[in-house]
Amino acid sequence: MRRMIIGLAACVVAGLSGVTVVRAEQAAPMSTAAPAVPGSNSTADHSKFEILQQDFKSGPEVTAACLSCHTEASDQVMHSIHWTWSYDNKATGQTLGKRNVINAFCGNVASNEPRCTSCHTGYGWEDMRAPPPAQPARVDCLACHASPDLYSKLDNAAGRPPLAPVPEGAKTITGAKAVAVNLSKAAQSVGPPQRENCGQCHFYGGGGDNVKHGDLSSALVTPDKSVDVHMAADGQNFTCETCHVSDKHVFAGSRYNVTAADDGGTGLPGMRRDVATCESCHGARPHPATLIGMKLNDHADRVACQTCHIPEFARGGVATKTFWDWSTAGKLKDGKPYAEEGFTQSDGKHLHTYLSTKGNFKWGENVVPYYAWFNGQVEYTTADQTIDPTKRVEINRIAGSASDPHSRIWPFKRMDGRQAYDSKRDKLVYNHVYGPTTTTAFWTNFDWSKSIKAAMDYVGEPYSGEYGFVDTYMYWPITHMVAPADQALDCQQCHAKDGRLADLAGFYMPGRDPYGPGGLLGMLLLAAAGLGVAGHALIRLLTRGKGGRHD
């Protein structure tokens, strides 16, 4: 009750007095900043190593040279999710990871490997039915450690870089024109990973810049402070690894098993190795000991930091895909595939709203998140689970509730989609989309029957031969693009009848909900306390002239 009354008072004070709310970014400055230039904090200049000055003919040759000094690196990488693309979630009992799940974007990796595994941190994984290559030299050291200006991967070669002669029209995984990589120069440029190293895969997943996550785009390579206070050069100038710290090439942070509520204490990046949370640096009570600050700190056990400090995602001029309808794919003009570009993002780039290969799309910038209770656990709808096609299917379900002390209100990108399913067995299906030389790839032949059957046969799953399309949702936790303090949400944006949390159920929110029994009792107690003070004052006034003492 005390918390509720203080909360009402704090919101009233903030709303009426124009008090500037002090946010987490105004806390003591971080002492750890990312190096401005890769290798600037290193004791080794790799351009001076004779073994790296040879004329390399392939990526594995470079890795073999790396392993002559970094003897355990490949073994470490091969034990990470970046290599296995598989994750056993002990909390839910599911085996997840890119290798196993069906998603709401391109659908699945299996049967589309040369294209999808172009982002694998290795060379030549061409069959999801087998584990990734076991040879240590097949690990790609350069993808993470070479200067991104000197190294890239082809978009359809299972992780291999473009080497001379580069095929006409070849593109990299970022969609740029592919040029021949000089492996010797790339090897000599190695250093700590830069944002662009991580971004070549993580920014461009799902078919383009910021398509998938919404809060991970090329805008984070050199962002303004208004886009991300942590990554901006005039902010903290973080690299990805500042927060996603690594231990033996295993990185903190997971979208399958998220640390939604971190009460494990604080420590600067580089100290705690198991999490990548706001609280690991800012603590659970990051605001100053003012009336408003204390109330904001009081929210920390119910509200994720990201909810207030990332008011919108897809900022910085790069839009994110918000809707993907596969059911309309396959239409042709004069027997040929075509594209429509009906959206122009704020940097002037025109984006497709229809592709014969992929269907219809919608895009958004400065998108207000979807909010939900979240305890960090994510469960996927896999191909062996029965779905109800009369209802919208959640490709991944986020767990949590207001009654769960481990849950917090979190922001999400909720991807709206429509994708194929087995209409007789009521199960999601795999699809074979990439394969220029096949007769079954949808992007070549535009035949769903052949595409689905080929993919289901490939993974060994039963298929009735009948398909339809079902509406889907897919959820992506929003945790990047932290805004400056003066752009964080204020009380009224949530504590209002039509506020951001208007549809979030399971709890009472002052300002949004009619007074329930608890709220009414609180107001009655507050009124009773006021009447008590007023009554006492009245008695003193009435007795003052009658010899009463007022000790």
TrEMBL record:
Gene3D superfamilies listed in its UniProt record: Flavocytochrome C3, Chain A
Signal sequence coordinates: 1-24
UniProt keywords, alphabetically: Membrane, Signal, Transmembrane, Transmembrane helix
Name assigned to this protein: Tetrathionate reductase family octaheme c-type cytochrome
Keyword match Chloroplast: no
Cross-referenced SUPFAM superfamilies: Multiheme cytochromes
Family matches, as Pfam families: Cytochrome_cB
Chain ranges passing through the membrane: 519-539
Keyword Transmembrane: yes
